[in-house]
Structures are given as C-alpha cells and as structure tokens.
Design a protein that fits this description.
Elements (H helix, E strand, L loop, with lengths): L2 E6 L2 E16 L5 H5 L3 E7 L2 E5 L7 H9 L4 E10 L5 E12 L5 H10 L2 E6 L4 E6 L6 H9 L4 E10 L40 H8 L8 E6 L17 E2 L17 H9 L15 E6 L5 H13 L4 E4 L12 H13 L7 E5 L18 E6 L17 E4 L6 E4 L27 E4 L2 H18 L5 H10 L25 H14 L6 E2 L21 E8 L2 H15 L3 E8 L2 E11 L2 H13 L5 E4 L5
C-alpha cells in the first residue's frame, strides 16, 4: 500500500493505511444496535471517531469505506493509519494547524482555504490559524501534505489522535470484578442480577487518571470497633494503631460483639495484593482507632490522637440520632479542631455517616458543619431507602439497598444470627471467600468517600480540608430527579453521587495552576464611612495580584482604600455572579507581564497580604 509522509510535532511521520480499520461518526439519533451493524468496534472515540473493523470480503478498504459512507446512519467515515514502526492505530481528527510565513496577508491565506475548501476554526494570530476539512476537501492528511508544499506556508500539521499508554497497573485482586461500587458494568460478576451500568463512584477511572492506586504518604484513620489486624487486606498497612478502651496500641480483637471496623476499613484502604478485594485507596496507610464513645474526654482524645499522629482523613461510620444526645460544645470543638489544626494546619478531612434510620434528619455528628456527611445510593443510582435525609447531607456514595458490596470480614465475625450457612454472610448464599462478606449501609458509603478523599490528596497533598470538601461537592454527579435539587443540593443525595475521577481531575488542575481558589468572605467590618473614588473601564488584558473576593460591597470599599494607601497602585474590581449572589473580586495593579505581577505578589506577601498573580483576561 502507498505511504504518506506528513509533518507531526517536531518531526515527520510516514503513514500506512490500515487494511481493515476505519473511523466512523454516526448520526446521533441512531441506536447502538444499528451502529453495531457497521462493523465490530475496537476503539471508542479516537479523534472523535469510533474505530471499527470492516468486513470487506473481496473488496479493498477504499471501496468498502466508500460503500459504508453511503449508509444513512453514517455521518463521516475516514481511514485509519499506522505510523512506520508503530502498532498504534492513528486517525486524523479533521483539523489542520497552519503557520504561514511572516507577511502573508489574510487575503492570501484565504486563497489556500478556498483552494482546499477548508473551514476556519480559529485565528490565533497574524500567522497561525486552525482550519477544518469539509466534505469538499481532500482528506486531512493529503490536504496538509499539499498545503505544506505551498510557498506561503511554513508548516501545515494535521491534528492526529492515538491511544495513549496508561501506566497504572490495575489491581489483580480476584474479587475486583465483583466490586460494582468501584466500576459498575451493569451486572453482578457471579450472579444473574442486573445493575445500572455506570452507577458507581468512578474509582477505577480515578486510578487511571492518577496513574497509580494512591499515595502511601496518605493516612486514613478509621474510628470504630472490631478491627481484624491480621486480615490479609489490612495487616501490611497498619500505622500507629490506638485503642481508647485500654489506652494502648494493643487493639482489642476477637470479641464477637464487635466486627464493624474490619469491613469499614477494607472499603477505604484494602490492599492490592492479588487476592480478595481492594479499597478505594489501596496504597494509603491505615490508622485503626478502636473504641467509639460518646464521652467528651474520649471524643477529644480520639480526634487529638489523629491530629498528633499524622492522620490525613478520619472516617466515622457511627453516631446517634437520639435528640437527647445531640452534640455539645466540647464534642463540636474536638471535631472542629481536627479540621482546623490537623495536617500541619491544612486540616484533617473528617467524614461521618448520615445514619440508616430512614429519618428526615441526620446523625448529629454528621450535622457538624465541618464534616463531610455521607449518604447512601444504590447500584441502580437511586436513594437507598434507609439513608437519612437532611440539609446537612454533603454527598452520596454507592452502597447496598439493591445489591450489596463485598467487604472484609473479621476472623471472629459470626455473621447474621438468624441466618445459617453461607447466608450468614452472603445475600445469595454464595461464598466469595472466608475473609469477606456482603456489606452496606451508610457505614459502607462513608469509608468509600474517605478512600476517594485519599486519592484526591494523592493528586494534590497541598489541598486544605475545606478545599477537598469543596472539590467533591462541585464534581459530584447529580442523580435522582432534578426536582429534588434546590440550589444544587438534595436532602437525599447532598450535591450528588461522588465522582472520584472528576474529583481527582480537579485536584490535579488546582495543583497545576498553583492558584489557590478564591475564598469569598462574607464580612470584614461594617463597611460604613465616606469614600472618594473614581471609576473607569479596565481592558481585559495584563496581570495583577488578586487578594480575594467579597460578597459585601462595603468590604470592597474598605479593602480598596487600604490597598491603595499601602501600595500606591490602582485597584481593579471585577463584578460577577457566584452561587446566585453578586461577588466582587479585588485585584491590585495592572501590568503588561506576569513577571511584573509576580514581583508585586512577593512584595505584598512580604507585607503580610495574601494573594496570587491573576491574568486579567480570565476576569472577563
């Protein structure tokens, strides 16, 4: 077959057409059943095309592709290529990046576009444009090759897509395919039971995005009773255990009344050891805190122990909904102190289960304003009937209510007393091993979110507890009826079902940008007084230093007056909307370059004023 040489990146590629693969875009309204008749799909969404194997019989690939293009359900069909020396299918997206020689006018550039029937997508500057082929154009590779030969053109690079390598080794643990809460493919692995495809926490996707199973630098504390520290999924990762009841690192084990801690811990951090299950954060370390208590003294001790011994995340699947035992100030402050002072001031992430009583209010511990209050949803993406509801619910996570999850089992766990045989541990009576059992409730959804928070911190360990809570709420998937959400919040689901992949992506984005999120301040002082100021429009270009954002206009006046007096520079105020309220973002200075703004940032930092360099174009 003939070869084609095109420019790509910093060099050239020699391409050879595939003999049996093509890329197809189908009409969106057509069903998947019709689409599958076009050929066997081997790659989904490569450069916007689905790559399929064509059964061409005695025909050559060109003739067969032309035949398929005539089908009603096919919108666009294109060839698939291989680069010389590579076995990765490659496809041209249809866009071409053209850099013209300096001095070529726009009229002269349009001659090229017209000659090849190209559509202008984006003009980046006087010399650089992005174009897209049309049905009247040659194929994008041949068009780019021809344009490259034109004297007015410096480079013409077709946009190409290949499958990238994923460097994460997914766990080989034998029960991973049963763990629908991590990745739900619409069925139970060994039971004739249908689930809702995609009703999961996106943990496997998050592992792929991270390129690993989380960081061993992250410590997840689980406060509970009944930890089996010899369990094969937990024994290798134990870190600074503590037992409140005997005040030592010798954790109580073997009492059949207490078995709850083992499955909870496994959901969060079960190791990837090629056997059994895995937790959401298999690489994280596990700090077992044994001995739950309502006592003020014990509450202070459990949270202070976590602060002093390096816990990043604290998962609690217990509490009370008895109104006689609502939290007093001492317990409230013990939790708040962990969120405020843990992790060297960045704050421990504290999670509580909302409770399983089917009440219209949540566990009083989960109602704490600094806590992530976790509700339960099912393998059908519906509300778990037992999961308590209320305005304090932060997030929902998959658990039982339809089909249970699999979790670790303590060696002394006697199972459900009224059942016999395998039914003591397994809903369908089918054993998946002596170390495991079916599990659920908000007791299970809470450590799942704790493990996901460990992945978020693995992506960006500099995040504060407040930022982690903000990230998981803003990246959640809205499930259930849209009418259940008021201002983005549902009493059943909180801000939606947790999405680990989107949460990790946002954590990575914030790490890359290195710009702290704007903290919107409700009030600094009254904002009363007499101010003299002038107003003029500021072009959306250049750089300054953003010091914050405010809901109260009076606070803006106070800050502007203070900043102008302190630094003698113009102060710019951007007026916008955030969560349905007017917000004022305050920026000091207006420079042509980021370097100048960075020097101001350092000067302000030395003066005790926090902020970060801000591109004014982002504040349009």
């Amino acid at each position: 077959m003939s070869k084609l040489t095109i420019r790509s990146g910093k060099g050239e590629l020699t391409l050879k057409k595939s003999k049996n693969l093509v890329g197809l875009k189908t009409i969106k309204s057509r069903g998947a059943e019709e689409e599958s008749n076009l050929g066997k799909e081997v790659i989904k969404n490569l450069g916007g095309f689905n790559v399929v194997v064509l059964d061409k019989g005695d025909q050559d690939i060109d003739s067969k592709l032309d035949e398929v293009r005539e089908k009603e359900e096919v919108d666009v069909g294109t060839h698939v290529y291989y680069a010389e020396g590579s076995d990765k299918p490659l496809i041209a997206t249809g866009e071409i990046y053209i850099q013209f020689e300096e001095g070529v006018s726009e009229e002269e550039q349009n001659i090229i576009l017209n000659e090849f029937a190209l559509e202008l997508v984006e003009r980046r500057n006087a010399e650089n444009i992005v174009v897209r082929v049309t049905p009247q154009s040659p194929n994008p590779l041949k068009a780019a090759q021809a344009i490259q030969q034109t004297s007015m053109v410096k480079t013409a690079e077709p946009d190409l897509d290949i499958q990238l390598d994923e460097y994460v080794n997914l766990p080989k643990d034998e029960l991973l395919s049963h763990q629908w809460h991590l990745k739900n493919e619409g069925r139970v692995a060994d039971a004739n039971y249908r689930l809702k495809n995609g009703a999961d926490s996106r943990v496997v996707d998050a592992w792929n995005r991270l390129g690993n199973l989380g960081s061993s630098d992250i410590v997840v504390a689980v406060i509970d009773n009944g930890f089996d520290l010899s369990h094969p999924d937990l024994k290798s990762k134990i870190y600074r255990p503590f037992d409140l009841w005997n005040q030592s690192d010798s954790v109580l084990q073997g009492d059949p009344r207490f078995t709850h801690g083992t499955p909870c811990a496994s959901v969060a951090v079960a190791a990837s050891n090629r056997s059994g299950i895995v937790g959401a954060a298999p690489n994280a370390r596990f700090m077992p805190i044994s001995g739950t208590s309502f006592s003020n003294r014990a509450t202070e001790q459990m949270f202070d122990y976590c602060i002093l011994n390096g816990a990043d995340i604290i998962s609690c699947s217990w509490g009370t909904t008895d109104p006689k035992f609502a939290l007093g100030n001492i317990k409230q402050e013990a939790i708040a102190r962990a969120v405020r002072e843990g992790r060297d001031g960045k704050g421990c992430i504290v999670l509580y289960a909302v409770g399983n009583e089917d009440f219209d209010y949540v566990n009083f511990y989960a109602a704490h304003p600094d806590v992530i209050a976790v509700a339960a949803c099912t393998s059908q993406d519906s509300h778990a009937y037992y999961s308590n509801r209320g305005r304090e619910v932060t997030i929902a996570a998959p658990s039982n209510g339809d089909w249970p999850i699999i979790a670790g089992r303590a060696w002394w766990d006697e199972g459900i007393g009224r059942e016999s045989g395998n039914y003591k541990y397994w809903r369908d009576g089918k054993s998946r091993g002596k170390y495991y059992k079916h599990f659920g409730g908000t007791s299970s959804s809470t450590p799942l979110v704790a493990g996901i928070c460990a992945l978020v911190l693995s992506a960006n360990p500099d995040l504060t507890a407040k930022e982690v809570k903000e990230i998981i709420t803003k990246t959640a998937d809205k499930i259930g009826s849209p009418t259940e959400y008021v201002n983005g919040h549902s009493n059943k689901y909180g801000y939606g079902r947790i999405n680990a992949d989107r949460a990790v992506a946002e954590a990575l984005r914030r790490k890359e940008s290195k710009q702290p999120p704007v903290e919107v301040q409700e009030s600094i002082s009254s904002g009363r007084g007499l101010f003299r100021f002038s107003v003029e429009r500021q072009p959306s270009q250049g750089w300054g230093v953003q010091i914050g954002a405010f809901y109260e206009y009076g606070n803006v006046l106070i800050q502007v007056e203070k900043l102008q007096r302190q630094f003698g520079l113009p102060v710019i105020v951007n007026i916008n909307e955030l969560k349905g309220k007017t917000v004022y973002k305050v920026v000091v200075g207006a420079y042509n370059s980021k370097d100048e703004a960075s020097r101001l940032f350092q000067r302000m930092k030395n003066a005790g004023v926090n902020g970060f360099p801000r591109n004014l174009a982002d504040l349009k």
